[in-house]
Amino acid sequence: MNKNRLFFLFFASMFTLSSMLFAQDAAELPGDPVNGKKIFNAQCGACHKLDRRMVGPALGDISQRHSMEWIIAWTRNNAELRASGDRAAIAIFEEYNGAIMPAFPALSDQDIMDIVAYTIEGDQKKVAVASGDGGAVASGTEDKGMNIWVILGLAAFLVVLIAILVKVKNTLKVIKGEPTSTLLEDSTAFTRVAVRNRKVITIFTLVVAVFLLKELYLGLMGVGLEQGYQPEQPIAFSHALHAGENQIDCQYCHYGAEKGKHSNIPSVSLCMNCHMYVQEGSKYGTEEIDKIYAAVGFDRETSQYIDGYEQKPVKWVRIHNLPDLAYFNHAQHVNAGNIECQTCHGPVQEMEEVYQYSPLTMGWCINCHRETEVDVKDNGYYEEMHEKLKAKHGDGKITVEMIGGLECGKCHY
Ligand code: HEC
Ligand code: HEC
Ligand code: HEC
Ligand code: HEC
Ligand code: HEC
Ligand code: HEC
User: Fold this and answer.
1) What is the CA(274)–ligand 5 centre distance, in A?
2) Which of 59, 108, 217, 366 is the most buried (most CB within 10 A)?
3) Does the beta carbon of 337 sit less than 6 angstroms from any atom of ligand 5?
4) Residues 256, 262 contacting (CB under 8 angstroms)
């Protein structure tokens, strides 16, 4: 059985390879890079990248340029560090023309150590991929490199799995003394059995028919006239560039979503946090960014705001619009419900221009309320209600429907 041995060898090498990959991840670090990445993306990623200068310096090599104490002191409150006369702090501040990095007094020492661990690990992976792929992938980024490994691994696994299944099946037949069969022969045998059993066919047809009718009904309820609506905007603002490539957190701009009914559209003065310094784009050069400057009254030549300029708000065209009779609240869904923006708005971080992804019909709201479980863990508000519902419905799942999410008055004034 030479083939079996080959399979075994293949499996063993795949296993070793993957454990080597994982072992690399677990190398000793002073902090937790996974947590660090989370904090970095949420709080630093708007201005810093690991591998290139953005609003602030690249942080990939920060651990080689400063001591951990310095990084902690700087991150916690850089103004205080500068005031103490620290030379390095004053120098970097001057190098960046006095751009203000906010203070982060709420971050613990451990949090900052985690961020630094992430800046180190992010780099190591990049190096490993660049040198380990034997030139097959031209300098892929960290994420692309990992994806290729995962895809290769999965593909190899599938091939092996199918081969083993066919092998096992035929071996069983050989043991029983039956002739071995191909996939095609198997399926014609199935049709013959079905034809002999009319009842089976009838029931099968019924099930399919009911299923199709149900889909049709739900489809009708879900026909959204505005779905896909994608108007042209006054400034060529790209979510793919800001939220995708530059990984700016959605709520850095749409901070209203967490707190209230509306998810605000940011004002141009928020854009200026970065565009005071980022004065040219790679696609449109100065053309589109000048529209921001025209709105707030900023002079590109002097890098100063113009005195006494009357600001003109940018007139963004609204894309999502429920009729007045319906009530929708973002905080209820984003905060209490813990639902990702993308569940309702689709992959916004990949959109050059935003379009309406979901139908926004009543059927759409209701379907989700029927299916979605309420997150009752660590949710003080629901604890009491949860106990009552448990008594009523047994220990099964508690959907939004059960807490009253289908009552007309909840969504209609
Ligand atoms: C609003 C933009 C902004 C945010 C958000 C921000 N930074 Fe900065 N950071 C800067 C700027 C600008 C500088 C350059 C120094 C200066 O002008 O103050 C800087 C400098 C630094 C430096 C010194 C780099 C060097 O080369 O000496 C470190 C370290 C740093 N930031 C860490 C962080 C960390 C960690 C976070 C997140 C917790 C963060 N920054 C969030 C803008 C920002
Ligand atoms: C740098 C600021 C910024 C970031 C970050 C950002 N957005 Fe936006 N968003 C805007 C601006 C400005 C508009 C209005 C212009 C437009 O529609 O493109 C907008 C529009 C939208 C709209 C359409 C609103 C309407 O008119 O109905 C949605 C939905 C949206 N953003 C979701 C997201 C999501 C989800 C993310 C995170 C993946 C995100 N945004 C990140 C600035 C931002
Ligand atoms: C946290 C930082 C940040 C904020 C906030 C921000 N941007 Fe940007 N923006 C960038 C960066 C970085 C670039 C990329 C420059 C480049 O192409 O290299 C950019 C590029 C652009 C470009 C040029 C695109 C091109 O390729 O020519 C436009 C237009 C733009 N931003 C509009 C806006 C608007 C409008 C807002 C406010 C709603 C905004 N930005 C808020 C960081 C930011
Ligand atoms: C449960 C679905 C759902 C989730 C989750 C959700 N949205 Fe919305 N969003 C909507 C609906 C529905 C509207 C239209 C509201 C209206 O017209 O009153 C909307 C409208 C918007 C608008 C236009 C302004 C407004 O409030 O009317 C923006 C911007 C927006 N969403 C951004 C976000 C961001 C950012 C997140 C994540 C933090 C998010 N949304 C999460 C369903 C959702
Ligand atoms: C992706 C799933 C999803 C969609 C789509 C959705 N919801 Fe919800 N909704 C939830 C969840 C989950 C909760 C429970 C949040 C919580 O824990 O309070 C909720 C709660 C609510 C509540 C409060 C119900 C109560 O009894 O407290 C209202 C009102 C509501 N949604 C309105 C809407 C409207 C209007 C729409 C459509 C425009 C909509 N929802 C679309 C998931 C969704
Ligand atoms: C989870 C939220 C939700 C609940 C619960 C809900 N609706 Fe609606 N309803 C909506 C939304 C959103 C719209 C607007 C959708 C649209 O225009 O397609 C709407 C639209 C309507 C309309 C207008 C339809 C039209 O074509 O203009 C009527 C009538 C209506 N609902 C009746 C009801 C009744 C009666 C109930 C209770 C049995 C109910 N709704 C419960 C969200 C809800």
Assistant:
1) 35
2) 59
3) yes
4) yes
Nearest of 100, 90, 126, 123 to residue 47 by alpha carbon: 100
Q: Give residue-wise pLDDT tens across range 381-413.
A: 566 666 777 677 666 677 888 888 888 988 987
Distance from residue 332's CA to the centre of ligand 5 (Å): 7
Query: Does the C-beta of 370 come closer than 6 Å to ligand 3?
Result: no
C-alpha span between 290 and 325 (Å, rounded): 39
**Nearest Cα residue to atom 38 of ligand 6:** 408
144 pLDDT more than 70: no
Per-chain mean pLDDT for the chain: 78
- The amino acid sitting at 349 is Q
More confident residue, 43 or 189: 43
Question: Ligand 1 pocket check: which of 37, 39, 48, 64 to mutate, most ligand atoms within 8 Å of Cβ?
Answer: 48
Kindly report the three-state secondary structure assignment for every residue of the chain. CHHHHHHHHHHHHHHHHHHHHHHHHCCCCCCCHHHHHHHHHHHHCCCCCCCCCCCCCCCCCHHHHCCHHHHHHHHHCHHHHHHCCCHHHHHHHHHCCCCCCCCCCCCCHHHHHHHHHHHHHHHHHHHHHHHHCCCCCCCCCHHHHHHHHHHHHHHHHHHHHHHHHHHHHHHHHHHHCCCCCCHHHHHHHHHHHHHHCHHHHHHHHHHHHHHHHHHHHHHHHCCCCCCCCCCCCCCCCCHHHHHHHCCCCHHHHCCHHHHCCCCCCCCHHHHHHHHCCCCCECCCECHHHHHHHHHHCEECCCCEECCCCCCCCCCCCCCCCCCCCECCCHHHHHHHCCCCHHHHHCCHHHCCCCCCCCCCCHHHHHHHHHHCECCCCCCHHHHHHHHHHHHHHCCCCCEHHHHCCCCHHHHEC
Question: For residue 242, is pLDDT > 90?
Answer: yes
Q: What is the pLDDT of residues 321-336, one digit of tens each?
A: 888 889 999 998 998 8
Q: In angstroms, rounded to a whole number, what is the distance separating the alpha carbons of residues 139 and 145?
A: 9
The arithmetic mean of pLDDT across residues 360-386, rounded, is 77
Task: Write the burial class of residue 332 (CB in 10 Å: 0-12 exposed, 13-18 middle, 19+ buried).
Answer: middle
